[in-house]
Automatic annotation (TrEMBL):
Function: Component of the ESCRT-I complex, a regulator of vesicular trafficking process. Required for the sorting of endocytic ubiquitinated cargos into multivesicular bodies. May be involved in cell growth and differentiation.
Name this protein carries in UniProt: Vacuolar protein sorting-associated protein 37D isoform X1
PANTHER family documented for this protein: VACUOLAR PROTEIN SORTING-ASSOCIATED PROTEIN 37 (PTHR13678), VACUOLAR PROTEIN SORTING-ASSOCIATED PROTEIN 37D (PTHR13678:SF12)
Record-annotated VPS37 C-terminal domain positions: 90-179
Residues annotated as transmembrane: none
Family, as annotated: Belongs to the VPS37 family.
Primary residence: membrane
Ion transport as UniProt keyword: no
Cellular compartments per GO CC: ESCRT I complex; late endosome membrane
Localization of this protein: Late endosome membrane
Alphabetical UniProt keywords: Coiled coil, Endosome, Protein transport, Transport
InterPro entries to which the protein is assigned, alphabetical: Mod_r (IPR009851)
Pfam families the UniProt entry points to: Mod_r
């Protein structure tokens, strides 16, 4: 009964279910036999095989890594040298860029045109000086011909260079003007509306009164000639009667001219002492 209580289940794969309690106690006291049983078990053997496999893979990987160590060291050294070359090239590029900007500011098309014009003026002055020396008789004919031909050649060469530079300068200006206009238009479109508006204009209004001319002038005014009066729209020419002026000519005193507002757009102030022709609205 004790055996059946302490025995392992009968379905054990190693067959420990048929071993008695006494045999198990003897097996516990027999250390070498117990180790041999554990070593020969299938689970332990599978674990040992996996261990050996992983150890072999680890050994192979370590060996490969050690073989790549020289290549890694060479790569590090090459990378350091490349960085050094990059720094040197960067310094050289910055120096050349600075020199290029200086030369571009100094030797643009406008500066080149000015320089060639100066050389052309100098060459023409030199050729004129040679002619003057020849006319004075200080230079022989052979030497004059030799030097004059070379100087005139320089003059013609400078003229050709000046023409080409001027053409290139004008062409660049034609190309840059549309681009500059587009840039200006883009800036204007992107600018706020308040920047485009001009300052509001201030107007001063003066009150005025409409007064008929019959009340202003104490005499009948001249009317337009009949041939300048056009009939109103929608009427026939024979139905329209042209009004004749009441007077053809009128001898007006000079002091009454100032009181006719139709003859002067600006207000007129008269300091004349006579107050007989005072305006009604005053």
């Amino acid at each position: 009964m004790l055996r059946s209580r302490c025995s392992p289940p009968s379905g054990n794969a190693d067959g420990w279910g048929n071993v008695g309690t006494g045999q198990l106690r003897q097996l516990l006291h027999d250390e070498p036999k117990l180790r041999r049983i554990v070593r020969l078990s299938k689970k332990v053997q599978s674990l040992q095989s996996e261990q050996e496999k992983y150890l072999m893979a680890n050994y192979t990987m370590a060996k490969k890594n050690l073989s790549l160590k020289p290549w890694l060291e060479n790569g590090k050294a090459s990378l350091a040298s490349k960085y050094q070359q990059l720094q040197e090239m960067k310094t050289t590029y910055q120096e050349k860029q600075r020199k290029l900007e200086i030369h571009l500011q100094k030797w643009n098309l406008q500066a080149a045109v000015t320089h060639v014009e100066t050389e052309l003026n100098g060459a023409e002055a030199e050729s004129e000086a040679q002619v003057e020396r020849f006319l004075e008789g200080t230079v022989s004919l052979n030497s004059f011909l030799e030097t004059f031909q070379s100087s005139r050649k320089v003059v013609h060469l400078r003229k050709c260079q000046l023409e080409k530079l001027q053409e290139a300068f004008l062409r660049d200006r034609r190309i840059q003007h549309p681009l500059q206009a587009r840039l200006n238009m883009t800036r204007v479109c992107r600018a706020p509306v308040s920047q485009h508006l001009a300052a509001p204009r201030a107007y001063r209004l003066t009150p005025a009164f409409l007064i008929p001319s019959e009340n202003v002038a104490p005499f009948p005014l001249l009317s337009a000639p009949p041939y300048r009066i056009l009939p109103p729209l929608g009427t026939q020419a024979d139905q329209y009667q042209v009004s004749q002026p009441r007077t053809r000519s009128l001898n007006l005193p000079h002091r009454l001219v100032a009181y006719i507002p139709l003859l002067s757009p600006k207000p007129y102030k008269s300091n004349y002492a006579d107050k007989r022709y005072q305006l009604p609205h005053q």
